[in-house]
Write a structure and sequence with these properties.
The protein is an all-alpha fold. InterPro entries: DksA_N, DksA_RNA_pol-bd, Znf_DskA_TraR.
Length: 152
């Protein structure tokens, strides 16, 4: 894993050097140009590394020992906090999987295009949700189908 992280860090540093600190992809630029792809790769790797750092901090806190609150109310509160923390880390673990999938789509030249229609997802949507795999319209249709299947 250290090798993968160091490779990601290297890619991240190289990508950061390509952009002004306030750069954001523009509709005036060619959609999913090399610059866009490098920007989103950088964004995804930064996100993934920050999630991994937070997970490492959680693991370190858990390794430091069990909850040792003398007061039962304090102990219950601490256990609740840990439960929330662990659920958050589980959601983030799933998010890392989506980030890795997005990075694979970048490598395969499919990033930024809807997996259902092949249409551009759009910069605004990708900036808001870099792991998006569908256009807003396709996502809404997908969610409607899911709702119908849950309701029946």
């Amino acid at each position: 894993m250290a090798t993968a992280v160091s490779k990601e860090t290297e890619i991240l540093e190289k990508a950061k050097s390509m952009f002004a600190p306030d750069y954001s992809p523009s509709e005036d630029e060619v959609y999913m140009s090399d610059k866009h792809v490098a920007y989103f790769r950088m964004l995804l790797i930064e996100w993934k590394l920050s999630i991994r750092d937070a997970a490492d901090q959680t693991l370190q806190s858990l390794a430091d020992g069990p909850i040792r609150e003398a007061d039962l109310n304090d102990r219950a509160s601490s256990e609740t906090d840990w439960g929330i923390e662990l659920r958050t880390r589980d959601r983030q673990r799933k998010l890392v999987s989506k980030i890795e999938s997005a990075l694979r789509r970048i490598d395969e030249g499919e990033y930024g295009y809807c997996e259902v229609t092949g249409d551009p997802i759009g910069l605004k949507r990708l900036i808001a949700r870099p792991v998006a795999t569908m256009t807003v319209e396709s996502q809404e249709a997908h969610e409607r189908r899911e709702k119908v299947s849950r309701d029946t």
